[in-house]
Write a structure and sequence with these properties.
single chain; 675 residues; alpha+beta; Dna Topoisomerase Vi A Subunit, Chain: A, domain 2; Dna Ligase, domain 1; 9-stranded mixed sheet; 6-stranded mixed sheet; 16 helices; 35 strands; globular
């Protein structure tokens, strides 16, 4: 078995990367996605690969879960909670998105109030039973919910169940007996942590997408079984790890940002290879743009993700900010007569107007085509011709409404798209106190390199890297990822009354659960264990995460732990409070199995200057210029190109602005620097 495959199912294209472990060759290709049936798009793409019997494994990233949540096309959920807590998901938090907008309303939860049921049960804050759940009443409730044809899934969140899941497990068992056709999500399995609203929102989201994800993954499994066999297929999780198709169907919330993680993982690998300490990644595809950071060689992780403002999903994931800005983003005019771009997308069907598949709206891709940045005869290596006339007609209609020339309108579309992406870059850099001048921008996705020169110019970032195979870079990351399992649990202990035995028991249990999960996936070698605690001064509302190197709490390391927290708090906030009581809120364990990585080939040094294949008129902000066009596969190590210029490859195009210079490193990555 020679081949490792990464497959990234996007909103517009499905990307494929195949690595041959014998020859070290990497093959990449694309197929149009099939939104109604993602599995069909995968099978069609695999049909282009002639070595299917030699496939060792396939790692799959998909937007099934993401799209179901963002588009609110999930299941109708019944929410079961402790008596008196029915309205937690509607009260939400006390903060507001817009402080001075009296018309602002809170986001709607993923459940309707009429489907929220209260259960007469109660645990205290230590997990002791104060009021036992009545099994007969629960069976009656299960039958009543099963009889409601509107209900498709059930979410169960009981008070303090993260300490003692006895009542949630009882409900789970009863529904399995009384209503086996209804999938049930319990908070102890989804998010065994404190904070009622966050736990409820995450558990409801898991139930909300479970039927649609299970159905689509089931169909996908059937198609893949006939093609390659499902034993070889795993799904990438939001934390960059992987799980089986069956595990993904039973815990779909862990796929919330499955697809974009691959680009961040690949970015980290390339940054390490090139000795880059601070990297910001930007992945611009057909539908969206994803931005993340790698600092000190490590991705940023978070449990604070929100599907919309105020609707949290607190499972561990790589910290990625997503905006609706892609090549397919539609240009439109708002009620005030202002030109806007996105977040609406033309998607894969019908796609941008220039795809010639019936699209009539002007998009970012149409603008890039009309400004000379795309070659209509070499899109996807010439396998898909672009319709210039259709793009001109779409842009002309938009320009007429604005009273502007079509060329100026197209440039405005690009500048607005760039501004949208600048906002995303600022959110992960400047808003976190990070200086863009300390970073390198890695731009990928089919559309990313078209905008990379503009972005580093406007952000003040000194250099950028366009990696090999940017159009399939997320799929590329899937073959570079390690197997990873995260476990979290709330146990509130203070420095004043610290139970070392219980703390040790909880941390060791989390580690063993994570190891068991990893073994179930077939990974038992090259295992690394990471432990951390979320801590705060007693009375604070937010916690600091503090890594620790032990799993047995002794008097010596416990004393040192409190001092480490003072130091970390001082470093983060500029002050500490010696002598103040410290509280541990959450225990975390991460277990990683380091998997074999592809070996990158080095290019032969260049023998002379690169030769352009043609010259083309290209529009820039300061006017139209005749620029040389190069083919990337003809570039060698140490080649240098002065802007303005265009570098074409099969799945992407890099635009080099005037005043910028491009250099090809020994691995074939293109490094762009501002003058």
């Amino acid at each position: 078995m020679r081949y490792m495959l990464g497959v990234d199912v996007g909103g517009t294209f499905t990307d494929f990367v195949a690595y041959d472990s014998q020859t070290k060759d990497i093959n990449v290709w694309k197929r149009m996605s099939v939104p109604r049936d993602p599995g069909e798009g995968i099978v069609r793409g695999l049909a282009q690969f002639e070595h299917q019997p030699d496939i060792r494994n396939i790692r799959l990233g998909t937007t099934i879960a993401t799209n179901a949540i963002l588009e609110r096309k999930g299941a109708c959920v019944a929410f079961l909670t402790t008596s008196g807590f029915r309205d937690v998901v509607f009260i939400q938090r006390g903060n507001r998105k817009y402080h001075y907008d009296i018309n602002w309303v809170k986001p709607k939860p993923l459940v309707k109030r009429r489907h929220c049921r209260e259960v007469a049960e109660r645990l205290d804050s230590q997990g002791n039973i104060m009021a036992a759940a009545n099994e007969g009443e629960l069976r009656g409730l299960a039958r009543a919910i099963a009889a409601d044809k509107e209900i498709e899934a059930v979410a169960v969140v009981f008070l303090f169940s993260y300490i003692n899941p006895v009542h949630e497990r009882l409900v789970q068992r009863i529904f399995a007996e009384e209503a086996p056709e209804l999938p049930v999500s319990i908070s102890y399995d989804v998010l065994p942590k404190w904070k009622e609203y966050e736990r409820a929102s995450t558990t409801i989201a898991d139930a909300y997408i479970k039927p649609i994800v299970a159905a689509q993954l089931g169909t996908m499994a059937e198609k893949l079984e006939r093609s390659v066999g499902t034993r070889k297929v795993s799904v990438i999780k939001s934390n960059g790890g992987e799980m089986t198709l069956q595990a993904a169907a039973s815990a779909p919330i862990h796929m919330a940002v499955s697809g974009p993680t691959g680009g961040v993982v690949a970015g980290r690998h390339i940054a390490k290879l090139l000795g880059i300490d601070s990297l910001v990644t930007i992945d611009m595809g057909g539908t969206s743009t994803d931005v993340s950071t790698i600092v000190g060689g490590q991705e940023s992780f978070t449990t604070g993700f929100e599907i919309e403002w105020g609707l949290p999903i607190q499972i561990p994931m790589i910290d990625i900010r997503t905006i609706g800005a892609g090549g397919g983003s539609i240009a439109w005019i708002d009620k005030g007569g202002m030109l806007r771009v996105g977040p609406q997308s033309a998607g894969a069907a019908p796609g941008p107007a220039c795809y010639g598949a019936g699209g009539t709206d002007a998009t970012v891709t149409d603008a890039n085509l009309l400004l000379g940045r795309l070659n209509p005869a070499y899109f996807l290596g010439g396998s898909m011709a672009l319709d210039v006339t259709a793009a001109e007609s779409a842009m002309a209609r938009l320009a007429d409404r604005l009273g502007k020339p079509a060329e100026e309108t197209a440039m405005s579309v690009l500048r607005i798209a760039n501004t949208n992406m600048i906002g995303a870059l600022r959110s992960v850099l400047i808003e976190r106190g990070l200086d863009p001048r300390d970073f390198t921008l890695m731009s990928f996705g089919g559309a990313g390199p078209l905008h990379v020169s503009d972005l580093i110019e406007e952000m003040g970032i000194p250099r950028a890297v366009v990696p090999n195979h940017p159009g399939q870079f997320s799929a590329y990351g899937f073959i570079l990822t390690d197997a990873r399992v995260d476990r979290h649990r709330t146990l509130q202990l203070t420095s004043k009354r610290f139970d070392r035995e219980r703390a040790t028991e909880v941390l060791k249990t989390l580690i063993e659960e994570a190891l068991e999960d990893l073994r179930a996936q077939g990974y038992a070698e090259n295992v690394q264990i990471f432990r951390s605690l979320e801590m705060r001064y007693l009375g604070q509302n937010y916690e600091l995460e503090l890594p620790i190197a032990f799993d047995t709490f002794s008097p010596e390391n416990t004393t040192a732990l409190w001092e480490q927290f003072h130091v970390a708090h001082r470093a983060r906030f500029g002050f500490d409070i010696p002598g103040e009581v410290i509280e541990i809120v959450n225990f975390s364990a991460t277990v990683v199995s380091i998997t074999p990585k592809p070996v990158f080939r080095e290019l032969e040094p260049a023998a002379g200057d690169p030769e352009p294949i043609e010259t083309r008129l290209v529009h820039f902000i300061d006017g139209r210029k005749s620029v040389p066009v190069y083919r990337r596969d003809a570039l060698s190590a140490n080649h240098s190109i002065a802007g303005p210029a265009i570098v074409e490859e099969i799945a992407s195009v890099t635009v080099l602005n005037p005043g910028h210079r491009l250099f090809v490193d020994r691995f074939g990555n293109m490094v762009i620097e501002r003058a």
